[in-house]
Amino acid sequence: MHIVWWKESVVYQIYPISFKDSDGDGHGDLQGIYEKLDYLTDLGIDVIWICPIYESPGYDNGYDISDYYAIMRKFGTMDDFDRLLEEAHRRGLKIMMDLVLNHTSDEHAWFAESRSSKVNPKRDYYIWRSGKNGQVPNNWESYFGGSVWKHDPETNEYYLHLYSEHQPDLNWNNAQMAEEMYGMVHWWLQKGVDGFRFDAVAHIAKAEGLPSAHNPDNLPVVPAYQLFSNLEQVHSILNKLNDMILKPYGPMTVGETSGLGPEQALAYIGTDRNELNMVFQFEHMFVDAKSSGIGKWNYREWKLTELKEIMSRWQTVLHGRGWNANYMGNHDQPRPVSRFGDDGRYRVRSAQMLATWMLTLEGTPYIYQGEEIGMTNVAFPNIDQYRDIETMNYYRHYIAQGRDKNDIMEAIWKKSRDNARTPMQWDDTEHAGFTEGQPWIQVNDNYTEINVAAAENDPGSVLHYYRKLIAIRKKSKVLIYGEYELLLPDDPDIYAYTRTLGDEKMLIILNFRGNEPEMHWPEGWTENQAKLVIGNVKRRYSTDEGTILLQPYEARVYMMQS
Ligand code: NOJ
């Protein structure tokens, strides 16, 4: 068992534009985060991951960086950042930055130079190609819809963008660009930040020659993930980054890597690899989609058996060989209580059950803002109320193709990233106490009921439960390091597993449904031996035969008494 601080940490993710606005301009800011440090300390978390706060025109809410060395004006100044970092450190909290290495904004000074002429020294910082018979250079589909290529009249060539056209991809074959990036990462480390989440890092290398993807139906564009994800060159870049820049500082690092399973993930995080500490995997985020990537919009009913299979595979394959980053939601995903729980009658209880799941797995837990009060998806009736570039592109694309508007809106209500981006609900005053101005995106109407102030006053709230659970996890070596074993793999409703470390053993039982299933005590466990550590219902039931009778969305965590 290899003990390190980032394995024992609980991370809280802040999407700063929607967290807390301190100056009434309707956008969250650094001062807003500063004002909520007490709240975060009380919650018991250790690390704050802040989504991008760098200078940016904001087409993708900061994931389009125009200056890596400056803070976006709406968020404040570099002095505000320094003050926040200092105060966080004073309280024993760590700060993890979100860095985008795959692309910049099209307003970055490098891109202005790059696009200005074919012979500009920075031309090669980005990926430029001429068209093929008046067509785009290849058939790759962008994550945000349409082709990855954008024609630029200035030099009559195309540049590649895996995301929006405002996010041109960098060319990591250019050694000078790479050096500038390494220097930038170093600059932030010297400032004293404690870690990085590397955005879209799986994609920084593209297949040699940028070949078109297999396209039997001859479509204009097709998903081509395997041609720009997790290629060998990504590993050599990360290895170098770690060796030259990261290692002396020992920051916590997590890479965003879609399109891989745990065996492949070991190439990034294996203890022998010298690359990253953790990766965010995506397999469980597609259990309710017909296919991965852009296929996310096509909903399918999810099955608990499939979710268990995926999570258990990651738990077991990485045990002793790597380390998991566990999450059920973030700024790109729907709200977990709406997706995997019940955001109606059993909202509180199912949010607590899901929290129990995340906080009792092996790996570092990541809590996304609002999860700790059970915030839900939003269903704005009108597309004009949405802000997310991916959502807008999806809407426009399918309206243009003549698809039924109601079907499109249904998909948006389920999967739009704006579900997780409505402002944090602090209290029941206007705009949920998020801003005194006009919020950049509307607050979810349910803020009068679901908000931090109400949760503070209710001992049975999701928030109080999170606080207890985090405290329990932090004290428990078995919950952090213990080996995971799945029970009842075929049960459609119950997710149960044990965690074992030496003589210590925990049993976690989660009912993922609104019904009342029964289960036997697992082998080796009896009711008398099992001491309840935490649960989310007041009274627990057994059947007359002594089996466990679960209530809707019930969660129980037991410790084995010797
Ligand atoms: C992943 C980020 O989480 C997402 O919000 C962003 O749009 C893309 N990468 C592009 O940077």
From TrEMBL:
BP GO annotations: oligosaccharide catabolic process
Superkingdom: Bacteria
Organism phylogeny: Bacteria, Bacillati, Bacillota, Bacilli, Bacillales
Species, as recorded: Paenibacillus xylanilyticus
Domain Glycosyl hydrolase family 13 catalytic: 13-421
GO MF term list: alpha-amylase activity
Protein name (record): Alpha-glucosidase
Family membership noted in the UniProt record: Belongs to the glycosyl hydrolase 13 family.
Matches recorded under Pfam families: Alpha-amylase, Malt_amylase_C
